[in-house]
Amino acid sequence: MEPNDEVTERPRRSNHVERRGEVARSDSCRLKTVTRVFVFEDPDGSVAERLRKGASADLFADKLREVRAAEGNVFLNEGVEFIWRAVTGAPGLTYFDSANAHVGVGDGTAPESPDQTGLQGTNKCYKRVDSGYPVISGNIVRFRATFGPDEANFDWREWTVANGSSDDAVNLNRKVQDMGKKVQGTTWTIEVQLKIT
Fold first, then answer.
1. Global confidence as pTM
2. How confident is the model at residue 22 (pLDDT cuts 50, 70, 90)?
């Protein structure tokens, strides 16, 4: 699988249709996803506490051990359907807002597929987004969640953005890549950025 987002990431060639001597060009769309994981030494959980309150990761440069990055993901069918339902004003939706948006991480290694409905691994953990998230800036939305010293201590090999705290929620996307093993005494903050151009 290519690092770009499936279904939507690769730009499509425009289709040309002749109409009374004019050329009509169909629209194309490109979705790009960038994920960063900030790894902090945090045995007492003080960094996690402040990050969850919306503090910038830059404030903890002395505790930062590494930043890991990945590109691409697969937008899941249930997530795309949710987007269209929201666009058309369908009632009863649970939005991906500050009260409901979660980032889930797991140890699953099954390849991404649009028909999946959540994380595929045995070990998984969903955390509500940090205070102030999600952040929308033009055509970009960013989700960020912080996992403290006692949380999600397993191999991080997959992640998703969901509108709830489990696979039963609507999962917008899924990405598989080995980001390393989180261990006791560390805080990991994951930021998922989705961009439409």
1. 0.86
2. low
Say if residues 170 and 164 touch (Cβ distance below 8 Å): yes
Q: What's the confidence (pLDDT) of residue 20?
A: 52
Query: What pLDDT score does 1 carry?
Result: 41
The answer to whether residue 66 sits within a structural domain is yes
How much is the pLDDT for 29?
78
Q: How many domains does the chain have?
A: 1
Residue 18 within any structural domain of the chain: no
Domain, as residue range, for 159: 31-196
